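Bug #77: duplicate submission created two jobs. Keeping one. Sequence:
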Amino acid sequence: MKTRLMDINLLDLLARPGMAGLRREFNLRSFPAGSRPFAPPQAENVVFVVASGRARLYLSFEERAFTLSHLEPGDIYSSHTRADIEVLEDTGLLVLPTQRFRELIVAHPDLTRTMVRVLGDVLQSSFDIINSLAFKDIPRRVVEFMHFEATAHGEKRPEGRLVRLSVNTEQLAQIVGATRQTVSETLSRLYRQNLVQRLRRGVYLIPDMAALKNFAAER
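Kept job's structure:
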C-alpha cells in the first residue's frame, strides 16, 4: 500500500541546468506542524511543490477523516481539490498561482512531460486506494503498509529489514481507514507472530519479508 502520492521528484526537475528561471517563479512558504495550508474560507488557487517536511492529504466528513496519501519533498499538488492538507512536521512549500503555472507548462516542454507522468501516478494511487478499501480487510492493509515502507525505505540488516516510520498508531489508522483500536490489535498480532518487531518508538524490524508478504496474501 503506497503512502506517498507519486514517485516523480519535482525538485530534481527544478534543479536541472536551465531551470533557474522556472525555480524563481515559486515562492517558498513555511508552515508549522499541525497547520492546514490553503484551508477554506481563505483558500488560494495555487500549485505547490513540497520543498521539505511532510504533509498528508485527507478527506473528512463530520468527525471522520480518511488519509488519501502523504506528500513528501519533491511531490507536487494543487490547493484546488476536495482534499484537505495537514502539515505533519514543519514544512516548506514552493508555491505558484495556478494560472501562472499553466502559462509555464506551455513554455517548458520538460515540465509538460513531467506533469503527464504525475497525472498517471495520481490516477494509479487513486485506483490503489479504491482497490484497498473495496477488497482488502484492515489487517491486510496494515501488513501491506508495513511491507511497502520496508521495501521502499527500509535498511537491510543481517537480522532482517529495519524500517523507520514517522506515523503513530492513530495516523496509521487514518491511512488504512480503520480505528486506532483495530490497528493496535493487528500490530499486536504481528508482534506475537514475530512478523514485526518493535525496537523502539517509530523503529521496527521485519525478520522475514517473505513471511510478512505471505501473511498479507493469506488474508
